[in-house]
Design brief:
Blueprint (H helix, E strand, L loop, with lengths): L2 E7 H4 L4 E3 L4 E4 L4 E2 L12 H12 L7 E7 L2 E6 L1 H11 L15 H9 L1 E7 L5
Parallel strand pairs: 4-6, 5-7
Antiparallel strand pairs: 1-7, 2-3, 3-4, 5-6
């Protein structure tokens, strides 16, 4: 199994983000990333954990790597990091507030800083069997 470290900008991760609570499906990265494949649990972060993910990004501190598994030509699944990934995407959608600010109420330079931030995504370049 080959592991390749890539840094993906948040603005690329959130492209095409969809979260369907009824079916449980969650997609991002131009709908090429299945954020909640069948073996993943439901979103269980408490508000404090979710908020700390966003604070960590704004402070430019490292988050643990998020692992993706390649399962097709341009198709991936999140193996590890679903909670962090959903926290990032939901904050961008202004689904919750952190330190008195929704994403859409941030000043433009802070929005841009968030979107341009690169996060480590480790992609397993092996097919899931």
């Amino acid at each position: 199994m080959k592991i390749e470290l890539q840094k993906i900008k948040i603005k690329d991760l959130i492209k095409g983000y969809e979260r369907d609570e009824e079916s449980g499906a969650v997609f991002g990265y131009n709908k090429n990333l299945n954020i909640r494949p069948p073996y993943q649990r439901e979103f269980v972060y408490k508000d404090k954990q979710r908020d700390e993910v966003i604070r960590t990004i704004f402070k430019c501190f490292p988050l643990n790597s998020i692992y993706w598994v390649k399962n097709g030509k341009n198709s991936y699944e999140v193996l590890d990091g679903q909670q962090r990934t959903i926290s990032i995407c939901d904050y961008h959608k202004s689904d919750f507030i952190v330190d008195g600010q929704y994403f859409h109420t941030l000043v433009e330079d802070k929005k841009e800083k968030f979107l341009e931030e690169k996060r480590k995504m480790k992609k397993f370049l092996a097919m899931l069997l």
